[in-house]
Design goal:
The complex is a heterotrimer.
Chain A: E1 6-17, E2 20-31, E3 34-39, H1 46-54, E4 58-65, E5 68-69, H2 75-80, E6 83-86, H3 98-104, H4 110-123, H5 140-152, E7 158-162, H6 170-185, E8 189-194, H7 197-200, E9 207-211, E10 214-217
Helix pairs in contact in A: 3-5
Chain B: H1 2-31, H2 38-53, H3 63-87, H4 95-117, E1 132-135, E2 138-141, H5 142-164, H6 166-176, H7 178-182, H8 188-213, H9 221-235, H10 240-260, H11 263-280
Helix pairs in contact in B: 1-5, 1-8, 1-9, 1-10, 2-3, 2-4, 2-8, 2-9, 3-4, 3-8, 5-6, 5-8, 9-10, 10-11
Chain C: H1 3-23, H2 26-51, H3 59-76, H4 81-103, H5 108-128, H6 130-133, E1 145-147, E2 150-152, H7 156-176, H8 179-190, H9 202-228, H10 238-251, H11 256-272, H12 280-294, E3 331-341, E4 344-355, E5 359-363, H13 370-377, E6 385-390, E7 393-394, H14 400-405, E8 408-411, H15 423-432, H16 440-449, H17 465-477, E9 483-487, H18 495-510, E10 514-518, H19 522-525, E11 531-536, E12 539-544, H20 546-551, H21 553-560
Parallel strand pairs in C: 5-10, 5-11, 8-9, 9-10
Antiparallel strand pairs in C: 1-2, 3-4, 3-6, 6-7, 11-12
The chains are: A alpha/beta, B mainly alpha, C alpha/beta.
Amino acid sequence: MSENTPALETRNITVRHGGVTALRDVCFTALQREITVLLGVNGAGKTSLLRGIVGLAATDGTILLQGRNIGALATEDRIRAGLAWVPEGRRVFPGLTVAENLDVAGPADSATRRERLADVVTRFPQLAQRLGDRAWQLSGGQQQMLAIGRALMARPDVYLLDEPSLGLSPAMVDVLAESLHALTAEGAAVVLAEQNAGFAQPLAGRRYTLRNGIMSED
Amino acid sequence: MIATQLLVNAAALGAAYALVAIGFVLVLNATTAVNFAHGESVVAGGFAAVALAGFLPPDIAVPGLVLLPGVLVVSALLGLAIGALAYLPIGNRPPVSVFVTTIAVGIVIANGLNAGFGAAPRSAPPLVGTGGFEFLGATASLQSLAIIATATVLIGALAWLLQRTQLGRRFRACAQDPEMARALGIRLTRITLMAFALGTAFAGVAGLLLAHQFFVSASDGGVLVLKAYIAVVIGGWGSLRGAAAGALLIAVFEVGIAAIASQPVAEGALYIAVLLVLFVRPQGLFGEPQQVRA
Amino acid sequence: MNLRTHMPAAGMATALAVYATVLASSYDQRLLALSGVYLILVLGYQFIFGHAGALSLAQGAFFGAGAYATGILATRWELGFLATFPLSIAFAALLAAIIAAPVLRLRTHYFALATLALAQLLLLVAVNWEPVTGGANGLSGVPPVSILGWQAPRGLPLVAVIWGIAGIAMLIAHHQMNPQRRAAFSVARETPLAAPAFGIDAGLLRLRAFLLSAAFGGAAGALFVHTNRVVSPETLGFGVMVTCLTMTVVGGRYRIAGALIGALLLTHLPEWLRGLDAYYLVAMGALLLAMVLFAPDGLASFLPARKPLSGTAASPVPIPSPGLFAGPSSSLEATGLHKSFGGIRALDGLDLSFKSGEIVGVIGPNGAGKTTLANALTGIAPADAGVIRLNGNEISGLAPHDIARRGLTRTFQTPQLPAALDIRSIVMTARNHTGAHNAAPDADDAIAFCGLSDEANEASGSLPHGLRRRVEICRAIVSRPSVMVLDEPAAGLTPEEQAEIGALCRALADAGMAVLLIDHNVGFLKPIADRLICMAEGRILADGSPEATLADPSVRAAYFGMDA
């Protein structure tokens, strides 16, 4: 039964972007131990939806994280409540080293941080050689690993990933898919916003499609 | 010999300017806005030293050094106030608004000090006493050497904080991508206020260091913020290392040209030089342009 | 221009005249004279700080330059007012002209620093060039204003002269900032990236604003010296700049009424706050801060708003006949376009051509270079290499506003519209630059063509997204271009709105325009496009009829992520 617990649920949320309503009455549920896929062409509103959930775009409506309404919280507090956001374009901190990029997302306690950093490196061995390099020196694929690793440092319950496969080589896409499966196997919920149906569909537990700001479950 | 002496003087002046410029960049990076009250913060630090010196016993050996912690605390509090009044309420309005609000806070500080302390220049006690000693045949003042030492220690401590601590990493993350930093759970407002406190504390200490030899008066703020601004432009917008280098360069320039020609010529040459830098090499003299945030 | 619009001005003038002659003591008259001086200074500052939106810190320097010019010419050369006044204005304007070219292209922070450095430099010269400027003491014995033998003593005559000149300054400001130019400044200020794409030469606007601000500053400085009869380095100090900035922020940055309120209020405030004594300036600073925080548009924003531009009565006009747009010969040809960002090739030797009557759709996955293509064609971000020809003439390398004026316009992914401006004004800014003396008829034609007549007088910010998108198109066609590039015009629209945009594009193509439609939405493009191009990695993957392109296996793999 615990497998079917909803980790993240949105109830009729409306997202505005620059004063314009980008999405209306969006309802979806992401379960623990499952990858929930949001499909839609670019401009359909996937990015706005994820930004709305983390509180970087104005929203109305209820957002339940592990049953608790986080819809009125500031972004920082939503993240601290157990949410992680891996944005489109990775947005690693270019001037920080790989290790610093990971550390900065971790908790205050340095022993715990060291432990989790080691765990990230085990998952993404490619990063092990690059820990001292600045993040801008990494390839696109490595930056994506770093961005997911950075999200891992806070041990969130729900991961929101925006187009992680974008610009990755087929081999890297496979690595990515594997790492997402590993996250769900450990009990997390993964929400994957993708326009690349070829990558996302085989991973999906539940699948939703966004068309012109309206969401439907497939 | 004169050259050595000039070099020590320039290094001392440059060290104090470096504190001002680094404080300026700390706020700049945290807010992407120019803090025009920064010059007044230097002046306020100088006056804080003057005021606190009144409570010291007269025969103390290292008066300035004893005052240093007090000046740091007072200036940090002032920085918090500047951030809370002139930056946080601005929200999403364009950076020009922050120019104007910090100019306004600067007016308040400068004229408050003028009303409280009078317009006449005041002098703060020296760091470790007056006098000097022979050094390679030249006389180096104790104060100059103490200024260099104090600034070096403070800048070193800041470098350690930024490079080696979690707080420092968060600082730099917020400077590079504030939205992403928030989305990692970092409390941006707190970090921003801390940048104001730290930056203004550096300015305040510079005020203490400068106020012995050069005196301090309420109207000095404008020239000081201009020098920090110039140092940052010369050194490359947003670079702490560049700001320190730019500050040293300004000091060498000022002391050197003043020795050859005169003080006004030195000042004028500096302004002309910065205009030339802006026109020819807007990314600064040192280093490549940093990743500029749109 | 009717009696009603002049009523407030006439009333105000009468009240001032009565106050000055009947009620005011000689001290009050002096304050009134000073207010007039500052009014001129602030009117000038509104051009650069308000309309152009650039934080110049040299306004005090122009004031001082005018002051010293008058002081030196009048005391050392003993020239009369009719010579010194124009020369003072010219001197300040000349200074501005000398530094304008390098300074005006600097961005915010650097512009502020450069203007500040210039001001400090002038102050330094004034203090240290003693034989000419009198050094720290300045020059005394400046004569009163004398015109053709008549001297204006202090008191009422001086007030009359200064306010007479201030009146002329207000008229000039009113004339310079006519509603159409106001609108152009507003577009250039609030949507700087988009403005050139509609033919607005933002650089020229900034230059005009900077020169005007300097000339007004010089005039104010000259009159200030005649009021005080001495000129001292204080006229060049940062204090003047701060006063001017405070007056402008308190009164308002854009309106003449704002300059009046700011100048009058802040010259008299010291009198009313005399009890504060030394803390008066502290109160000034606090007031400035409070104004920015609580009334960022100044006190003038509490006055009734000016009316939007009224054009001809908005009557529905039938869709204009074909031929409204450039003739059947329009074409765009691009060959060998290259553009790199860092190591990434956003355009990699791309060739493209299309002609009038054609709608060409462009699809492609994210990062394929579609927006880069639009930016390269329109000169917003020119290509590194390649040739672009518009109607056979090479346009590559031209400034974007020049390309727009030659007949290639575009729309943006996010509509770039100043929120406070009404639709007609926005549309007119894209027409007026071509030298048409009256853009209103063309604007109304285009507005009717786009079905926006009912909304023509509304602020763009109040419109729903779909209509804002149409305003963008309307603005792109008002200058009757031969080629239009639309970047994602359907994104975020309902299917009905998409269909309307599609029909509009069809009508434009039928009227002789060549249309390039960049969009993700194949469902939107397929029915209206004559040709469909799929881009990937900066190159063209397929180019043909929509059916053929969509059936292409490489397109299916790249765009839809399906196996070939």
